[in-house]
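tool=predict chain=A
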Amino acid sequence: MTSARRARITRSVGLDLVLWVGVIVLIGMPFYLALVTASKSGEQAKRVSLDFPEPFVLWENLTRVVTDGNGLMGLLNSILITVPAILLTLFFGAMAAWVFARGKARTIQALYYVAVAGILLPPSIITTIRVLQATGLYGGPVGLVLFYCGAYMGVAIFLMTGFVKAIPYSLEEAAQLDGAGTLRVFWHIIVPSLRPVLLTSGVFLALGIWNDFFYAYFLLPDPVNATLPLGLFNFASANQYELNWNLIFAHAVFTSAPLLILFMFAQRRIISGFLGGSVK
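tool=predict ok
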Protein backbone atom coordinates (compact mmCIF):
# COMPACT_ATOMS: atom_id res chain seq x y z
CA MET A 1 0.00 0.00 0.00
CA THR A 2 1.44 3.35 -1.06
CA SER A 3 1.74 6.28 1.30
CA ALA A 4 -0.77 8.31 -0.74
CA ARG A 5 -3.41 5.57 -0.50
CA ARG A 6 -2.73 5.18 3.22
CA ALA A 7 -3.19 8.91 3.69
CA ARG A 8 -6.52 8.85 1.81
CA ILE A 9 -7.77 5.97 3.98
CA THR A 10 -6.67 7.79 7.13
CA ARG A 11 -8.49 10.97 6.07
CA SER A 12 -11.62 8.96 5.23
CA VAL A 13 -11.60 7.18 8.60
CA GLY A 14 -10.96 10.47 10.38
CA LEU A 15 -13.86 12.14 8.58
CA ASP A 16 -16.20 9.26 9.45
CA LEU A 17 -15.11 9.47 13.08
CA VAL A 18 -15.76 13.22 13.19
CA LEU A 19 -19.22 12.73 11.67
CA TRP A 20 -20.15 10.01 14.15
CA VAL A 21 -18.95 12.13 17.06
CA GLY A 22 -21.03 15.03 15.75
CA VAL A 23 -24.11 12.82 15.48
CA ILE A 24 -23.64 11.52 19.02
CA VAL A 25 -23.15 15.02 20.44
CA LEU A 26 -25.97 16.72 18.52
CA ILE A 27 -28.57 13.92 18.67
CA GLY A 28 -27.50 11.29 21.16
CA MET A 29 -26.64 13.52 24.10
CA PRO A 30 -29.93 15.52 24.15
CA PHE A 31 -31.90 12.30 23.83
CA TYR A 32 -29.89 10.69 26.64
CA LEU A 33 -30.33 13.78 28.85
CA ALA A 34 -34.11 13.76 28.30
CA LEU A 35 -34.39 10.04 29.03
CA VAL A 36 -32.17 10.25 32.13
CA THR A 37 -34.03 13.26 33.52
CA ALA A 38 -37.37 11.57 32.89
CA SER A 39 -36.12 8.61 34.94
CA LYS A 40 -35.09 10.64 38.01
CA SER A 41 -36.96 11.54 41.13
CA GLY A 42 -38.09 15.10 41.74
CA GLU A 43 -35.10 16.04 43.89
CA GLN A 44 -32.54 14.50 41.52
CA ALA A 45 -34.09 16.24 38.48
CA LYS A 46 -33.49 19.66 40.01
CA ARG A 47 -29.76 19.21 39.33
CA VAL A 48 -28.89 19.02 35.63
CA SER A 49 -26.44 16.15 35.17
CA LEU A 50 -25.80 13.11 33.00
CA ASP A 51 -25.58 10.78 35.99
CA PHE A 52 -27.64 7.62 35.77
CA PRO A 53 -30.66 7.93 38.09
CA GLU A 54 -30.80 6.06 41.37
CA PRO A 55 -33.48 4.84 41.73
CA PHE A 56 -34.72 4.43 38.16
CA VAL A 57 -38.33 5.67 38.26
CA LEU A 58 -39.19 6.20 34.59
CA TRP A 59 -42.24 3.95 34.74
CA GLU A 60 -43.56 5.73 37.84
CA ASN A 61 -43.11 9.13 36.19
CA LEU A 62 -44.87 7.97 33.03
CA THR A 63 -47.72 6.64 35.15
CA ARG A 64 -48.10 10.04 36.80
CA VAL A 65 -48.06 11.70 33.37
CA VAL A 66 -50.87 9.44 32.18
CA THR A 67 -52.99 9.90 35.31
CA ASP A 68 -52.30 13.48 36.42
CA GLY A 69 -51.45 14.93 33.01
CA ASN A 70 -54.30 13.32 31.02
CA GLY A 71 -51.75 11.59 28.83
CA LEU A 72 -54.13 9.01 27.37
CA MET A 73 -56.69 11.67 26.43
CA GLY A 74 -53.97 13.75 24.77
CA LEU A 75 -52.71 10.69 22.92
CA LEU A 76 -56.21 9.89 21.65
CA ASN A 77 -56.78 13.51 20.57
CA SER A 78 -53.44 13.59 18.75
CA ILE A 79 -54.26 10.36 16.89
CA LEU A 80 -57.77 11.53 15.97
CA ILE A 81 -56.33 14.74 14.53
CA THR A 82 -53.06 13.54 12.97
CA VAL A 83 -54.29 10.43 11.15
CA PRO A 84 -57.29 12.00 9.32
CA ALA A 85 -55.23 15.09 8.46
CA ILE A 86 -52.47 12.95 6.91
CA LEU A 87 -54.88 10.72 4.97
CA LEU A 88 -56.87 13.63 3.56
CA THR A 89 -53.75 15.61 2.66
CA LEU A 90 -52.12 12.65 0.90
CA PHE A 91 -55.31 11.70 -0.97
CA PHE A 92 -56.15 15.15 -2.32
CA GLY A 93 -52.47 16.02 -2.70
CA ALA A 94 -51.95 12.99 -4.92
CA MET A 95 -54.96 13.97 -7.01
CA ALA A 96 -53.69 17.52 -7.41
CA ALA A 97 -50.16 16.30 -8.20
CA TRP A 98 -51.59 14.04 -10.93
CA VAL A 99 -53.41 16.99 -12.51
CA PHE A 100 -50.39 19.28 -12.28
CA ALA A 101 -48.01 16.65 -13.67
CA ARG A 102 -50.19 15.81 -16.67
CA GLY A 103 -51.47 19.31 -17.39
CA LYS A 104 -49.86 21.21 -20.24
CA ALA A 105 -51.83 24.45 -20.06
CA ARG A 106 -50.13 27.51 -18.63
CA THR A 107 -53.03 28.01 -16.26
CA ILE A 108 -52.40 24.64 -14.64
CA GLN A 109 -48.70 25.37 -14.33
CA ALA A 110 -49.49 28.73 -12.74
CA LEU A 111 -51.84 27.05 -10.27
CA TYR A 112 -49.07 24.59 -9.39
CA TYR A 113 -46.71 27.40 -8.41
CA VAL A 114 -49.50 29.03 -6.41
CA ALA A 115 -50.09 25.76 -4.54
CA VAL A 116 -46.39 25.20 -3.89
CA ALA A 117 -46.00 28.79 -2.69
CA GLY A 118 -47.94 27.73 0.40
CA ILE A 119 -44.74 26.08 1.63
CA LEU A 120 -43.10 29.49 2.05
CA LEU A 121 -46.15 31.49 3.13
CA PRO A 122 -47.38 30.62 6.66
CA PRO A 123 -51.15 30.71 7.14
CA SER A 124 -52.65 33.67 8.95
CA ILE A 125 -53.93 32.56 12.33
CA ILE A 126 -56.40 35.45 12.75
CA THR A 127 -57.97 34.86 9.34
CA THR A 128 -58.15 31.13 10.05
CA ILE A 129 -59.95 31.72 13.35
CA ARG A 130 -62.48 34.03 11.70
CA VAL A 131 -63.19 31.53 8.91
CA LEU A 132 -63.61 28.63 11.35
CA GLN A 133 -65.89 30.75 13.54
CA ALA A 134 -68.02 31.65 10.52
CA THR A 135 -68.36 27.99 9.54
CA GLY A 136 -68.99 26.76 13.08
CA LEU A 137 -65.83 24.63 13.18
CA TYR A 138 -63.75 26.70 15.58
CA GLY A 139 -62.61 24.94 18.74
CA GLY A 140 -63.15 21.40 17.48
CA PRO A 141 -60.85 18.75 16.00
CA VAL A 142 -62.59 18.86 12.60
CA GLY A 143 -61.61 22.47 12.07
CA LEU A 144 -58.01 21.75 13.03
CA VAL A 145 -57.88 18.75 10.69
CA LEU A 146 -59.10 20.86 7.77
CA PHE A 147 -56.60 23.58 8.68
CA TYR A 148 -53.71 21.10 8.60
CA CYS A 149 -54.89 19.81 5.23
CA GLY A 150 -54.72 23.28 3.78
CA ALA A 151 -51.47 24.20 5.51
CA TYR A 152 -49.57 21.10 4.37
CA MET A 153 -51.18 20.56 0.98
CA GLY A 154 -48.41 22.46 -0.78
CA VAL A 155 -45.77 20.16 0.72
CA ALA A 156 -47.62 17.05 -0.43
CA ILE A 157 -48.11 18.41 -3.94
CA PHE A 158 -44.47 19.42 -4.23
CA LEU A 159 -43.18 15.99 -3.14
CA MET A 160 -45.53 13.96 -5.35
CA THR A 161 -45.63 15.90 -8.61
CA GLY A 162 -42.16 14.76 -9.66
CA PHE A 163 -43.05 11.12 -9.00
CA VAL A 164 -46.21 11.38 -11.10
CA LYS A 165 -44.21 12.80 -14.02
CA ALA A 166 -41.98 9.69 -13.90
CA ILE A 167 -44.98 7.32 -14.31
CA PRO A 168 -45.29 6.30 -17.99
CA TYR A 169 -48.40 7.84 -19.51
CA SER A 170 -48.83 4.69 -21.59
CA LEU A 171 -50.06 2.87 -18.46
CA GLU A 172 -52.92 5.32 -18.13
CA GLU A 173 -53.74 5.09 -21.82
CA ALA A 174 -53.83 1.28 -21.66
CA ALA A 175 -56.17 1.39 -18.68
CA GLN A 176 -58.45 3.86 -20.45
CA LEU A 177 -58.57 1.62 -23.53
CA ASP A 178 -59.72 -1.19 -21.25
CA GLY A 179 -62.63 0.96 -20.11
CA ALA A 180 -61.22 2.34 -16.85
CA GLY A 181 -62.57 5.69 -15.74
CA THR A 182 -60.64 8.58 -14.24
CA LEU A 183 -61.02 7.51 -10.62
CA ARG A 184 -60.14 3.90 -11.45
CA VAL A 185 -57.00 4.98 -13.27
CA PHE A 186 -56.03 7.12 -10.31
CA TRP A 187 -56.67 4.41 -7.72
CA HIS A 188 -55.18 1.44 -9.60
CA ILE A 189 -52.34 3.09 -11.56
CA ILE A 190 -51.25 6.32 -9.89
CA VAL A 191 -51.67 5.49 -6.20
CA PRO A 192 -49.73 2.16 -6.29
CA SER A 193 -46.89 3.89 -8.14
CA LEU A 194 -46.77 6.61 -5.47
CA ARG A 195 -46.44 4.29 -2.47
CA PRO A 196 -42.81 5.19 -1.64
CA VAL A 197 -43.39 8.94 -1.75
CA LEU A 198 -46.75 8.60 0.01
CA LEU A 199 -45.05 6.98 2.98
CA THR A 200 -42.22 9.52 2.96
CA SER A 201 -44.68 12.42 2.75
CA GLY A 202 -46.81 10.85 5.48
CA VAL A 203 -43.87 10.75 7.87
CA PHE A 204 -43.03 14.40 7.17
CA LEU A 205 -46.64 15.38 7.73
CA ALA A 206 -46.78 13.33 10.93
CA LEU A 207 -43.73 15.16 12.28
CA GLY A 208 -45.26 18.55 11.62
CA ILE A 209 -48.80 17.80 12.76
CA TRP A 210 -48.02 15.63 15.78
CA ASN A 211 -45.54 18.11 17.24
CA ASP A 212 -47.50 21.25 16.39
CA PHE A 213 -48.18 23.51 19.35
CA PHE A 214 -48.63 27.00 17.91
CA TYR A 215 -51.72 26.46 15.73
CA ALA A 216 -53.29 23.91 18.08
CA TYR A 217 -52.93 26.40 20.93
CA PHE A 218 -55.09 28.98 19.12
CA LEU A 219 -57.53 26.63 17.37
CA LEU A 220 -58.23 24.24 20.29
CA PRO A 221 -59.11 26.44 23.28
CA ASP A 222 -61.01 23.66 25.06
CA PRO A 223 -58.68 21.55 27.27
CA VAL A 224 -60.82 18.50 26.54
CA ASN A 225 -59.56 18.53 22.94
CA ALA A 226 -55.92 19.20 23.89
CA THR A 227 -53.28 17.27 21.95
CA LEU A 228 -50.08 15.93 23.52
CA PRO A 229 -48.02 19.14 22.97
CA LEU A 230 -50.85 21.19 24.49
CA GLY A 231 -51.08 18.71 27.35
CA LEU A 232 -47.36 19.09 27.97
CA PHE A 233 -47.74 22.88 28.11
CA ASN A 234 -50.71 22.68 30.47
CA PHE A 235 -48.92 20.13 32.61
CA ALA A 236 -45.77 22.25 32.85
CA SER A 237 -47.66 25.46 33.63
CA ALA A 238 -49.98 23.90 36.21
CA ASN A 239 -47.54 24.73 39.04
CA GLN A 240 -46.31 28.31 38.78
CA TYR A 241 -43.82 28.15 41.63
CA GLU A 242 -41.97 24.86 41.09
CA LEU A 243 -41.36 22.82 37.96
CA ASN A 244 -41.15 19.05 38.25
CA TRP A 245 -38.55 18.55 35.54
CA ASN A 246 -38.66 14.78 35.83
CA LEU A 247 -42.38 14.75 35.02
CA ILE A 248 -41.99 17.35 32.27
CA PHE A 249 -39.30 15.28 30.55
CA ALA A 250 -41.35 12.13 31.12
CA HIS A 251 -44.25 13.83 29.31
CA ALA A 252 -41.87 14.82 26.50
CA VAL A 253 -40.71 11.20 26.19
CA PHE A 254 -44.34 10.04 26.18
CA THR A 255 -45.13 12.57 23.44
CA SER A 256 -42.16 11.62 21.26
CA ALA A 257 -42.38 7.83 21.64
CA PRO A 258 -45.07 7.23 18.94
CA LEU A 259 -43.03 9.10 16.31
CA LEU A 260 -39.86 7.22 17.25
CA ILE A 261 -41.69 3.90 16.90
CA LEU A 262 -43.12 5.00 13.54
CA PHE A 263 -39.68 5.94 12.25
CA MET A 264 -38.13 2.67 13.44
CA PHE A 265 -40.62 0.63 11.43
CA ALA A 266 -40.74 2.91 8.36
CA GLN A 267 -37.13 4.05 8.00
CA ARG A 268 -36.26 1.62 5.18
CA ARG A 269 -39.27 2.67 3.12
CA ILE A 270 -38.52 6.33 3.81
CA ILE A 271 -34.98 5.93 2.51
CA SER A 272 -36.21 4.01 -0.54
CA GLY A 273 -38.66 6.84 -1.20
CA PHE A 274 -35.82 9.37 -1.19
CA LEU A 275 -33.64 7.18 -3.42
CA GLY A 276 -36.53 6.50 -5.77
CA GLY A 277 -37.14 10.21 -6.10
CA SER A 278 -33.47 10.90 -6.82
CA VAL A 279 -33.32 8.18 -9.47
CA LYS A 280 -36.50 9.34 -11.13
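The chain has two domains: 3-59, 70-238. The chain has 13 helices and no strands.
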